[in-house]
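for the writeup, i need someone to sanity check this before i put it in the appendix. the sequnce is what the collaborator sent (i think, or maybe the updated version? ugh). structure was predicted straight from it, no edits. if anything looks off just tell me and ill rerun, i have time this weekend
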Amino acid sequence: MIGTCLSTAELRRLMRKFMDVDDANDLEVHHEAVRMVSQHAGLGRALHKTLEQQHGSAVQRFGRARDTDALIALWEEALRQGEVPGAYWAVLTHRRVTPALRQRVFGDVHMLSHLVGAANRADIRRLVALEQENAELRNRVERQQERLTGIGEERDRALAERDQQACELVGMRSALARGAQEEARHRETAAEVAALSAAVAAQTRRREQAEGAALAAGADAQRLEQELARLHACVAELAHELAAAETQLREMASGADAAGSTLSRLLRGQRVLYVGGRPSSNPAIRDLVLRHGGEYQRHDGGIEDRKGLLASAAAWATLVVFPVDCIDHDSALALKRMCMRQGTRFVALRSAGVASFANGVSALEAAEMRAGLPAMHLCPKHG
């Protein structure tokens, strides 16, 4: 709920009152908020107040729902419109919410996280296409600008020619006024004047056409510049999103490296039970534990089918580890209850990768130093 309903910036502002956030990355701030919210009454009240203020309009809208069907309809509408954070908080805190509906909205939000990863790949392809389109539009704008410059020069020449011909026409008319007796010359001059008038009219029409073409070209150039600005903004936005995704990957990689520097001290003499996982990464995790002085057993995660074997393995272990993406919700809850009854420490990992295992094990030390007792890690997925 914290990761969905609050942005990282909002969470940092809230947690600044309860921890030193300057030297912590976003993941560490998030983990500390999840850990403290059930133990620190002040944080719980501050979090509730912040979410109520942040999503007040959604809470008010969902508050008018009188039954579960109305809540479901409002939730489905929020999903279609992409207004998930406020709607998620409003549903979970509504007095009419049922356990089934709470599980449903949790599942919807969980699946959205998978869609985000796919959307990032589509955004990268879109960024490349937009950059190509941006280059093409820039070339079109340059060609239009050259054409507009040529039209402007032609218009200036037409105006100069018109002014010159007008001056000549004035001189001719003055000569006609002085030489009334020169009727023959007057007729010739009149014919010339008529021809010049026609030329002036033709030049006037050309000038008007040139001005119209210049206005049209200017409008086209303005429209293309606006489109170019829009595409620049779109490219910048996608670049920011890509940079944010790369930052998250670097932070995860940095966390894994930090964990590896202390794994020998943390794993030496420990009996590690790994539940679930993937065939591709399990051998590497086993080798990692053995290489750093620990003992290793693995259970395939079938809680109901091999419950007796799992219970005995958990009793043997000093540390139980399981990835949340390779074990269902009910099995994870059953495994955690079993560890709590037996007093065995456990860690719920984000994924089945080796880096996730190393980071989760390293986090035990920090959790135990803060709490002064063996850490019982809870994750955002399974509580």
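Strands lie at 271-275, 295-299, 319-323, 345-349. The domain at 123-258 is CATH 1.10.287 (Helix Hairpins).
thx in advance!!
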